[in-house]
Design brief:
Length: 132
């Protein structure tokens, strides 16, 4: 009986190590990339866009001001940026910007609406009159 438990723990330990290595190999580079990318988000005040630029490619979240609020209009992510979480980074940045500037948020962008659904803590930043 004790031998079976020992065998179980060896298997469990081995699986845990393999899973940890997989997570480190697969997700740590993505996490590091996100940290670096967030530092590179620009606020293009002339075009009212939060942007990530790599070479000639620009991913951006278009915004507008409406009264005292900020409206998130649209997110555009070129193919070279896809599958890297860039749209989520831009949405997170927009909500951080709004909070820092005490601006309620109007969400027109479908992706930003989806982002709020996945991050319900952000719903307190939404413009209460617009989002009833």
């Amino acid at each position: 009986m004790e031998e079976r438990f020992a065998h179980y723990y060896v298997i469990h330990f081995t699986v845990s190590i393999l899973l940890s290595e997989f997570i480190i190999d697969q997700f740590l580079p993505v996490l590091i990339n996100h940290i670096n990318m967030k530092e590179n988000i620009l606020n293009d005040k002339n075009n009212l866009q939060f942007q990530i630029v790599e070479g000639d490619d620009i991913a951006y979240l278009q915004y507008k001001y409406h009264n005292n609020s900020i409206a998130l209009i649209n997110i555009v992510v070129p193919k070279v940026f896809r599958r890297r979480g860039i749209a989520s980074l831009l949405a997170a940045y927009a909500f951080d910007f709004a909070k820092l500037n005490s601006k309620p948020v109007l969400v027109y962008c479908p992706f930003a609406a989806h982002y709020v659904q996945n991050h319900p803590e952000l719903s307190k930043q939404l413009d209460k009159e617009f989002h009833k």
